[in-house]
Amino acid sequence: MTDEEGIIHVWSPAAEKYFGFSEQEILGSSEYQLFYDTAEEVSQGGIRFSWRYRRDGEVLFVQEQVVEISDPDDHDIRFMKVLTDYTAQFTPAEECELWVAHYAKRRVGVAAFDLQSQLFSSLNESFAKNFGYTHDEIKGVSYGSLLTPESSNLSPRVLEIMGRDGWGVFNVTYRRKDNTTGLFKAEVVPVWRDGHVVMSACHATNEEWTSDISKALAKTATCVVDNIGKVHSWGPDAPMLYGYSGEELQDYSLLCDEGSKVEWSPQTRFGWRRRKDKSRLFVQETILPFVDDGIENQFLIYTKDLTNRLSDSAKNKMMTLHRGNVVGAHSLLTQ
């Protein structure tokens, strides 16, 4: 059972068996640590299908049913969340189809394609519309056919990175039905079977699309660093969060507590960061491989400010989980 922010207040013995976290470890923590899809938001009602992490790193495909529970004598609102494991009941293509259905009427473009055939297996109307096609016109075609020659040449490397690292964020140029071109960012959710990535579920956004991901990344800063932590670019929200401009801060380690070990690899981690005014933030960082114009060995960092959303005990727990190399939200270290 969680509150409106996704903080876990009740953890049943069945949930402990299901996910591998004890009640003592999980209470007061955010359910974001269980989310596999980086753009997924905390649900406050209804039914949806998505992926969840176990403590041992295994990924489950689940149905989540959410019921609001309120007490007329209490202003607090709680949400009971019942999850059923359907991993063995669906193929990867069926999982992606159910996942896409959650975004059916939303303005964020989502799609899934098979890594072997490179054909789209499922997508929502927003994804097709922003390429100038209808849903039926684009389903079943190769994703490579939508890319410009420059980005098409990048496809083999994208597939290699996906197979190696799982997660990836890629800037690619695409060609619309009317032959005009545009740039979009593709954030890819890998679907695993028997230790291999077999499907990719993709969130696609560009400067013209009104995206639900923007809401999911509220109070989130983005930046791109290389494998030694040099900052190559800042997203528009980073200066607001940290107080630095892109020109002022080129070394990411300056944001970290003294003595902190900063590692650059696909993972999610929790820790303290420093603003320009020396105040401190407790953050969740999701680090994904990033390829832009063929340049590799870069990482895109989503930094979410959790300072006022978690209790002190929850912050300590999240730090302990990270130091213990436990797979938290979206981490693939043990895959």
TrEMBL record:
NCBIfam families: sensory_box. InterPro entries: PAS (IPR000014), PAS-like_dom_sf (IPR035965), PAS_fold (IPR013767). Residues 1-30 form the PAS domain. Coiled coil: none annotated. It comes from Bdellovibrio bacteriovorus str. Tiberius. This is PAS/PAC sensor protein. GO terms for biological process: regulation of DNA-templated transcription. Pfam families: PAS (PF00989), PAS_9 (PF13426). It comes from the Bacteria. The lineage of its organism: Bacteria, Pseudomonadati, Bdellovibrionota, Bdellovibrionia, Bdellovibrionales. Gene3D superfamilies: PAS domain.
